[in-house]
Amino acid sequence: MIVSVIGLGLIGGSLALGLKQNGFATKIIGVDNNERHTKEALEIGIADEIRSLQEAVELSQVIVIAVPVDAACKLLPAILDRISEDTIVLDMGSTKADICEVVEGHANRSRFVATHPIAGTENTGPRAAFPTLFMSKVGIICDEGDSDQDAVHLAERLYKSLFMKVVYMPSKEHDLHIAYVSHLSHISSFTLGLTVLEVEKDEKTIFNMAGSGFASTVRLAKSSPAMWAPIFDQNAKNISMVLGEYIKNLQIFKELIDNQDQDKMFELMENANDIRRILEGIILNEHNLIKK
Amino acid sequence: MIVSVIGLGLIGGSLALGLKQNGFATKIIGVDNNERHTKEALEIGIADEIRSLQEAVELSQVIVIAVPVDAACKLLPAILDRISEDTIVLDMGSTKADICEVVEGHANRSRFVATHPIAGTENTGPRAAFPTLFMSKVGIICDEGDSDQDAVHLAERLYKSLFMKVVYMPSKEHDLHIAYVSHLSHISSFTLGLTVLEVEKDEKTIFNMAGSGFASTVRLAKSSPAMWAPIFDQNAKNISMVLGEYIKNLQIFKELIDNQDQDKMFELMENANDIRRILEGIILNEHNLIKK
User: What is the architecture, at CATH level 2, of domain A2-170?
Assistant: First the structure.
């Protein structure tokens, strides 16, 4: 099967490497308007050939959109305008409601499958890509009723070929939940990084005093602004609500500290400790995927 | 040298294991008022024998206090009341101003060395201890002018025997910087965990949708309330200020999201990306310690 990947960064690049290694794709056509990326993608073997978008659409059975979510919303209608009825398009963006809305009522809507693989690192570009990024991760497919059955089936086959678990979910529900479990973490981390950088002008102090806990909480502050600004924009309503709750909880914590109310602090932290069970659940979830 | 360790949890236990393995301690006397911990400490080999506080103080050349910071402030004066002039006491707490204040003017103040090893994990108790916890980490010694030279020298030798780097700093300065690079990370993580747990009643959703980024930012929410409540209490003034700045920055981020100001969001995140250089600096710092 010929697969075109539009956007040869961490996500698109890793997908391409994985689908080539496992034989799902007989050929990967790469599309990217960043020349350095196309050059690197050829060197690394992410893409077998680089083509224009139009050529890629004509030549492939599967078209994967792996660009920032604002660019994806612009690209998708143009791609659907041109595809044949045997081709499917899927996107891999972190927000799902907007992209589903933008093609609502399009004549070829049913050839599109809205997906979100829950995988990534804080690194970017083709050189950050690796073929096992998606292994034992969850791939979410949204609003599957709006896609042809064969298209959904093929998208599911593609993800399962990478040892992923496929989960179905309405796009609006996806965007709300993902605001809590992913977008909030990123904003918390970006802002933590900023707050410390603002005040600790003497880097030696950070080097000496920051431990593994600091590193762990600010790791996501390394993430790509080009990828995240459009996500925060598209999911603004949900994120604003979730962020408001986070700020409210921080203010409660601050009051307890100001009032030196150790008992109540203790209680809050004990409740937060329950996250241990959740984190073990996540690991178990991945482990079960591997065993199945 | 006979070393007494008071508090046989992650920190005290790891120190004991390290000092026994490297030969610095010929014998470890363990003190802990938690019976399960003393039993486990003997089983694991953290302590050679368990003794009362009074016996431990009489029998050892080095006394290490590794209990929560509120308990440490109560213990230290009582220990200083009884020690001989050849003995030194050091504490390992995450806050330094209060403990230095509590023994200001004590007749044996100069036998005490205030220290803070920048090391730890989110796990607790003797079973979480391991002998290399401190390897290539920084050990901070505060207000060294208030301690006898031989006491400071011995504390430094102890840390260096574990391949640590020793850094000197006034206690008040320590407490301000550590509020930024450690205490804030913990509050951010505790509160993030709470916020998500409050709303995501259906754990399956978290298991399916949470990725490695979420796990990384909430890892510290597993930390021990018994250890952290007294730290937040003792460093309340600094933490409140730092937390206020973090909340202010989150509110700025929220406004940008509400106004869908992608350009300014992009700029903030690009500034936050500078944390990459800092994190590399931390790794390099550790690496240089190993090489030296």
Answer: 3-Layer(aba) Sandwich (3.40)
**CB of B90 closer than 8 Å to CB of B112:** yes
**How is chain A split into domains, by residue range?**
2-170, 174-291
Q: CA of B166: which chain A residue's CA is closest?
A: A208
Residue in chain B nearest A271 by alpha carbon:
B194
Per-residue pLDDT of chain A (292 residues; tens, 9 = 90+): 999 999 999 999 999 999 999 999 999 999 999 999 999 999 999 999 999 999 999 999 999 999 999 999 999 999 999 999 999 999 999 999 999 999 999 999 999 999 999 999 888 999 999 999 999 999 999 999 999 999 999 999 999 999 999 999 999 999 999 999 999 999 999 999 999 998 877 778 888 888 888 999 999 999 999 999 999 999 999 999 999 999 999 999 999 999 999 999 999 999 999 988 888 877 777 766 655 5
Handedness of CA A157, A160, A164, A168 (dihedral sign): positive
DSSP state of B105: T
Chain B residue numbers touching A197 (CB-CB < 8 A): 271-272, 274-275, 278
Question: Can you tell me the ipTM of this complex?
Answer: 0.90
Q: How many CB atoms lie within 10 A of CB A198?
A: 12
Residue B182: CB atoms within 10 A of its CB come to: 22
Q: How many CB atoms lie within 10 A of CB B156?
A: 18
Domain B174-291, CATH homologous superfamily name and number: 6-phosphogluconate dehydrogenase C-terminal like domain (1.10.3660.10)
Q: Which helix (H) or strand (E) holds B30?
A: strand B27-31
Q: Which of B96, B135, B188, B256 to mutate: most A Cβ within 10 Å?
A: B188
> What is the rounded distance in angstroms from the CA atom of residue A155 to the CA atom of residue B109?
70
Distance CA A49, CA A10 (A): 18
Give residues with Cβ within 8 angstroms of A16, minimum separation 6.
A3, A5, A8, A25, A28, A30, A41, A46, A47, A129
Cβ B190 vs Cβ B223: under 8 Å? yes
- State the alpha helices, DSSP H only, in chain A: 10-21, 35-44, 53-59, 69-82, 97-102, 149-161, 171-178, 184-199, 203-209, 212-218, 225-234, 236-258, 262-272, 275-291
Contact assignment for B195 to A270 by CB distance below 8 Å:
no
Give CATH for domain B2-171: 3.40.50.720
Question: What span, in angstroms and rounded, lies between the C-alpha atoms of A278 and B78?
Answer: 42
Cβ <8 Å between A207 and B239? no
Question: Are B180 and A197 an interchain contact pair (Cβ–Cβ within 8 Å)?
Answer: no
Residue B200 · residue A180 · CB < 8 Å: yes
Q: Kindly determine whether residue B279 and residue A219, on different chains, have CB atoms separated by under 8 Å.
A: yes
What does the DSSP 8-state code read for residue A164?
A: P
- Where is B254: in which H helix or E strand? helix B236-258
The answer to whether B66 and B6 are in contact (CB under 8 A) is: yes
